[in-house]
Specification:
Uridine Diphospho-n-acetylenolpyruvylglucosamine Reductase, domain 3, 38% helix
């Protein structure tokens, strides 16, 4: 399968708009007249500097692994020098690679990874772990002055062991989502982890960034699924005990999870599994506004129910969702109109919720009976199974829509955070206001709740505006700074599930405090005293960042 170097995912796929004319008319109404984006035609138009790795360094790296697994070819270096953020796509479409990796290596075993780290440390070479390359926060871009190698771990993709009695599996960290689920499903299990990047992201990448799948309200974020880990670092390998729980000091699993490659390379993980659900029942509910939907979500979570999916779009996102659907015709249109009229459901200004339960037949039915009582109490009106099925079909498709928006000169990016219920709506308003002000009131901000807990929930915003021609990155940076400052002031999480990378790094000292920075610096010094692991990411602990823009 060939993937797009200039966009998201499979080059044969695009986002299919059921009614393109209707959709683009809505977008033009929100954002004004659209243009036609330009992009280079092929990777051959990207001019890369030659690799900075000298013959001695290349020989040392080749000696540490299969010589054929190392390449300094332009195509490999280009696609491993950027992730899939808005800024990454703007730059690659121009043919700009501001910081290029000097070689790409495809190790096949943990021993090879360890040997490569040893050789890199001896030669003073920076190392970036690379799974699916789906980072949206600058997590895989080479930064700093050192020559850099990128370790693509996707050849390390085997299921090493499955223990049906304990319901755990040990897998190599480079396995991508579809392959992971296919191997587990064949044994009657699931990890239950389905981020939007599921098709192109890896187990190691999920753990390194504390990813949240779209079903995390039931299954938990990825760090909750980890029983034990193995990580190679310059000078050794650390393996955490495979036990269900322990009281042996700070949890090393949780120290490694979220480390984003600055300590070492996650090579294996033993993860907790769940049985494949016999029934998945997802439905749509419409609320008169976002606030009563938030109250319903809070009560559902505090009632002890654990839906697999609880996703609430605000009024703006609901309007866009409705604009993207195929308009009903004939008898279907009449039936829908009659249903809405009888139920006194207004689509204008409404908030759409997708709720779903996974599990055994009897349990799912029981959970739905309890949930329905709560949703109705908060003025939720059932839309039946169609919205739930439509969401399931398209759950991994929206990144393809970003490509279409970029083709029409639209800035589109996301920001996500989380807060406790008492601060949730104030945070929501602060984020929206900050983005609207940063875009001079000429953009579109839409938001949803997508990961919920008994004490709070995540907040996920998508913001769009017409690109400022010639100032696309500066325009984005203005919005990014404004909204992140607003999140910190409102007491939200700096990131709920995308991680930190380089984009959020300027706020880390403010977020974790001076003692937190010292703690991370001490960990960095312990595992990576020469500062070769993924410089310029997560924390200010590394020194070699003289050319990093903040």
């Amino acid at each position: 399968m060939a993937t797009k170097w200039w966009g998201w995912g499979d080059e044969r796929r695009t986002f299919l708009l059921p009614d393109p004319q209707q959709f683009w008319a809505h977008v033009s109404g929100w954002l004004g007249e659209l243009g036609v984006g330009q992009r280079i035609e092929s990777l051959a138009e990207v001019v890369l500097p030659p690799s900075r790795l000298e013959a001695k360094a290349l020989d040392a790296l080749r000696a540490a692994t299969d010589a054929e697994s190392l390449t300094t070819g332009s195509a490999d270096r280009i696609v491993h020098s950027l992730g899939k953020s808005y800024c990454d796509l703007v730059r690659i479409r121009r043919g700009e690679i501001p910081h290029a990796t000097d070689a790409v290596i495809y190790p096949e075993t943990e021993d090879q990874v360890a040997a490569l780290l040893g050789a890199a440390a001896e030669q003073g070479i920076a190392v970036i772990p690379f799974g699916g390359g789906t980072s949206v926060l600058g997590g895989v871009e080479p930064l700093g002055a050192k020559p850099t190698i990128t370790l693509d771990l996707t050849r390390m993709n085997r299921l090493l062991r499955l223990d049906p009695l304990s319901a755990t599996a040990t897998l190599e960290a480079g396995v991508l989502g579809p392959s992971l689920e296919q191997q587990l499903n064949a044994k009657g299990f699931t990890l239950g982890h389905f981020p939007q990047s599921f098709e192109y992201s890896s187990l190691g990448g999920w753990i390194a960034t504390r990813s949240a799948g779209q079903n995390s309200t039931l299954y938990g974020k990825i760090e909750h699924r980890v029983e034990s880990l193995r990580m190679a670092f310059p000078g050794g390998t650390i393996a955490t005990p495979a036990v269900p729980a322990a009281a042996a000091g700070p949890d090393l699993n949780q120290i490694i999870a979220g480390s984003e490659g600055i300590l070492g390379v996650i090579t294996q993980a033993t993860v907790r599994l769940a049985p494949l659900p016999r029934r998945c029942d997802y439905r749509g509910y419409l609320f008169p506004a976002f606030q009563p939907g938030v109250e319903a979500a809070r009560e559902v979570m505090q009632s002890g129910l654990r839906p697999a999916v609880l996703r609430l779009s605000d009024e703006a996102e609901t309007e866009v969702t409705l604009a993207m659907r195929a308009p009903p015709h004939g008898l279907m249109a009449a039936a829908e109109g009659l249903y809405l009229a009888l139920r006194r459901i207004r689509l204008e200004g409404a908030a759409l919720m997708i709720v779903g339960f996974d599990g055994e037949e009897d349990q799912v039915r029981s959970d739905w009976r309890r949930a329905q009582r709560i949703l109705r109490r908060h003025q939720g009106s059932s839309l039946g199974h169609r919205p739930g099925r439509a969401w399931e079909r398209s759950r991994f498709e929206l990144p393809y829509l970003r490509d279409l928006l970029l083709d029409h000169t639209i800035m589109v990016d996301t920001v996500e955070t989380a807060a406790t219920w008492d601060r949730y709506l104030p945070l929501y308003h602060s984020v929206r206001d900050a983005l609207a002000k940063a875009m001079d009131g000429r953009g579109l901000v839409m938001t949803h709740l997508s990961h919920a807990y008994s004490d709070g929930a995540s907040l996920y915003c998508t913001f769009l505006a017409r690109q400022a021609e010639g100032r696309e990155l500066e325009q984005w940076q203005q919005a990014k700074i404004a909204v992140t400052d607003a999140i910190i002031r409102a007491g939200g999480a700096l990131s709920h599930h995308h991680g930190i990378g380089s984009d959020h790094r300027p706020w880390m000292s403010q977020y974790v405090g001076a003692a937190g920075v010292r703690t991370l610096a001490a960990l960095k010094q312990t595992f990576d005293p020469q500062g070769i692991m993924n410089p310029g990411k997560l924390t200010a602990a590394d020194e070699d960042t003289s050319d990093v823009d903040v």
